[in-house]
Amino acid sequence: MTEADPSQTARPFDYLIVGAGFAGSVLAERLASVGKRVLIVDRRPHIGGNAYDAYDDAGVLIHPYGPHIFHTNSRDVFEYLSQFTEWRPYQHRVLASVDGQLLPIPINLDTVNRLYGLNLTSFQVEEFFASVAEKVGQVRTSEDVVVSKVGRDLYNKFFRGYTRKQWGLDPSELDASVTARVPTRTNRDDRYFADTFQAMPLHGYTRMFQNLLGHPNIKVMLNTDYREIRHLMPHSHLIYTGPVDAFFDHRYGKLPYRSLEFRHETHDAEQLFPVGTVNFPNDYAYTRVSEFKHITGQRHHRTSVVYEYPQAEGDPYYPVPRPENAELYKKYEALAEAESGVTFVGRLATYRYYNMDQVVAQALATFRRLQGEKV
């Protein structure tokens, strides 16, 4: 990874890439590998986007932008990233603080038995869900998704309060996709994800990004707004991974996002929580707290945690999934498609909530398309 010096740029770059997160970094690596000269710029002082990790003052490896847990069903994505990192097997587990107990989420057999003092079998819990589920004619909202599967009481205890905090909206006002992401299980599987590949970069995400951007054809500029250097750095093609509405100077208004405030704490204890993340659907202003040493496997005599407070304003994290927002994005999508010499890729540029592996897959597909077009 080489820092770019404007005065030393002898010939044009083939690509100027805006954003050094997963989308931009994967495309930079792929393009450099086929002989393209790439300049990647980021307004932040570090690479890695929101997946960036670093050691805090106590020497604990933390994720400043909240926990990033890698999981995928794509062998192609996993094998691609395996060129740039070794892995530590890790299966994330989450508990929810409900009615004075810490209970597994996603809801499973143990959740129901412990919450209601029952001793159901897998078959019986399936019958239990069927008996409490509410009939919904057409599943349109996040509320519909949950109550049609597990009924009103579990919905109120585990989902409604969490969703209202996270989105600032009632689940009845949100697209079904929000809660459809969380499964319901009739067995005792307490893993948060069920993907085939579940692991964390052995030496952290930042090291992996350093390896991704280590090709001599890649130059990196940090603390840089691309608009200030776009015309100073000659290039053949722009790849943009930032907010699509900002690219077009919010011509049709701002696309709505939810943001997060992260409050980090370090404690003089080896461990505070039994699992990596504890959700608080009904109490406090924060939605969840995560303890990094579970996630990274680091051994340390102190421990660092992060509390997540959803916000209406701040860095864009989650596109708000409502029909009117999708319609607004379509206007920007049309502008993006009409823009010559620019490729839009990644979460913010396509106004979609993607997991990390999905962003990598999108970037790899974009590379293949660019290669096919001989850009």
Describe this structure in words.
GO terms for molecular function: UDP-galactopyranose mutase activity. It comes from Deinococcus taklimakanensis. It is an enzyme of class 5 (isomerase). Its EC number is 5.4.99.9. Keywords: FAD, Flavoprotein, Isomerase. With 375 residues, the protein is α/β, with parallel strands linked by helices. The protein folds into 2 domains: 2-91 and 198-252 and 319-373, NAD(P)-binding Rossmann-like Domain (Rossmann fold), CATH 3.40.50; 109-180, no CATH class. It is 34% helix and 21% strand. It is built from 13 helices and 18 strands. It has helices at residues 22-33, 75-81, 109-116, 122-132, 142-167, 177-180, 205-212, 226-229, 244-247, 292-296, 323-338, 347-350, 356-373; strands at residues 2-3, 13-18, 38-41, 54-55, 61-62, 71-72, 87-89, 94-98, 101-105, 197-201, 218-221, 235-240, 257-267, 277-279, 288-291, 303-311, 318-319, 342-344. The strands form 4 sheets. Strands 9-8-14-15-16-13-17 form a 7-stranded mixed sheet. Strands 1-11-3-2-12-18 form a 6-stranded parallel sheet, with helices on one face. Helix 1 links the parallel strand 2 and strand 3 (38-41). Helix 1 packs parallel to helix 13 (356-373) and helix 4 (122-132) crosses helix 5.
SSE diagram, text form:
Layout: E1 2-3, E2 13-18, H1 22-33, E3 38-41, E4 54-55, E5 61-62, E6 71-72, H2 75-81, E7 87-89, E8 94-98, E9 101-105, H3 109-116, H4 122-132, H5 142-167, H6 177-180, E10 197-201, H7 205-212, E11 218-221, H8 226-229, E12 235-240, H9 244-247, E13 257-267, E14 277-279, E15 288-291, H10 292-296, E16 303-311, E17 318-319, H11 323-338, E18 342-344, H12 347-350, H13 356-373
Helix pairs in contact: 1-13, 4-5
Enzyme class: isomerase
GO molecular function: UDP-galactopyranose mutase activity
Family: Belongs to the UDP-galactopyranose/dTDP-fucopyranose mutase family.
